[in-house]
Specification:
Strands 2, 3, 4, 7, 8 and 9 form a six-stranded parallel sheet that branches. β2 (152-160), α6 (166-175) and β3 form a beta-alpha-beta unit. By secondary structure, the chain is an alpha/beta fold. The model is unreliable at 12-125 (pLDDT under 50). Helix content is 49%, strand content 10%.
């Protein structure tokens, strides 16, 4: 009996021991292989991303940021040697398939965060600045007014010279003994050289208003440069100096062009008082528009030339009363270089 009982107990122990060993080992091998695959998949995904993925434009919406990540991921193969060292055993007796799937999904989304951030930075850096922002960013190159500490103003006249209105503007200025600044077009100066010479002879200052009144922001830097240099070449032969002052048509210019202006030692001069005379207003309307806006240091925009359909008679007729009223209010009239304390030539 005793011998039979001992033998039965021994058989039971052997069966228990034999069943326990294979239960743990296959789990460890399986878990190590699975985790090593996930880790290697992450490493492969991250190494497959390069800087070019941050240059995509336009920015993706939050719903499709993942589209920037590779659409296929190489399946990693794990050698038996690397598996045991890649993982620390977990006390969990069984792998949760949902958790593993979540881990893989999370790893594939990791690159989406820096993509969003960097693409956002690219968009900000490429954002076009407004004219007011350009004035703030380039205060030594882009001017709208003079010092508010001096009760001085500058009359400026654009788009000439022509034979209809420019001589009349010059007559009115001469009668009131006021010097002004004329921003002239290269094409018009080439067509009416005698009027350009008269402007200079009577003590006024010449500025560059482009060659053909082009919308400068739509031009490449090379074409923009041609607009400025072609006008400068015409004027230098007529007035003896290369004007430093540039007024872009419509007051419009972009940042790349502003940098070119700064690099070549010019000065952009727009205005802070608009007469709106280009609308063919009468003299009373022109006068009221200017008087309502003028302050110490103002640069006043008017025109001495324009399209054949424009009538600038109101501009000419308003010059005398405007000068009288502003002088009575204590203002002095100066040219733009005097107002800004800069030279008229480069």
């Amino acid at each position: 009996m005793t011998t039979k009982w001992v033998c039965s107990a021994a058989i039971v122990c052997l069966l228990a021991a034999g069943c326990g060993v294979p239960k743990s080992k296959p789990y460890q091998d399986q878990r190590s292989t699975q985790n090593a695959h996930v880790n290697e998949q992450e490493a492969t995904l991250e190494s497959s991303l390069d800087d070019s993925v941050f240059d995509f434009e336009p920015l993706p919406s939050p719903g499709n940021i993942e589209a920037l990540t590779p659409t296929t991921t190489p399946q990693a193969t794990v050698s038996p040697k690397s598996a045991p060292t890649a993982v620390t055993p977990s006390p969990s007796p069984r792998t949760n398939p949902k958790k593993a799937a979540h881990t893989e999904g999370s790893s594939s989304k990791k690159p989406s965060v820096p993509v969003q951030k960097n693409s956002g930075q690219v968009r900000i850096s490429q954002k076009k600045l407004t004219l007011s922002q350009l004035v703030v960013k380039y205060p030594d190159t882009f001017k709208l007014r003079g010092s508010s500490q001096e009760k001085k103003v500058a009359l400026t006249f654009d788009d000439g010279p022509d034979t209809r209105f420019t001589p009349k503007v010059l007559d009115a200025l001469k009668a009131n003994q006021v010097k002004a600044t004329f921003f002239v077009l290269g094409s018009q100066a080439s067509s009416h050289p005698d009027i350009v010479r008269r402007i200079v002879r009577e003590g006024h200052v010449i500025g560059n208003h482009s060659y053909s009144h082009a919308n400068l922001p739509k031009l490449s830097v090379d074409k923009f440069q041609n607009q400025i240099m072609n006008t400068e070449n015409v004027l230098q032969g007529l007035i003896g100096y290369a004007p430093r002052l540039i007024r872009p048509p419509y007051g419009a210019i972009n940042e790349e062009q502003v940098r070119w202006v700064a690099d070549h030692h010019y000065l952009i001069v727009n205005w802070n008082v608009d007469s709106l005379d280009w609308k063919s207003l009468n003299s009373e309307q022109v006068l009221n528009n200017i008087m309502q806006q003028t302050k110490p240091g103002s640069i006043i925009l008017q025109h001495s030339g324009g399209a054949e359909t424009q009538d600038l008679s109101g501009t000419v007729q308003a010059i005398g009363p405007l000068i009288t009223k502003l002088k009575a209010a204590g203002y002095t009239f100066v040219t733009v270089p005097e107002l800004l304390h800069v030279t008229k030539n480069k």
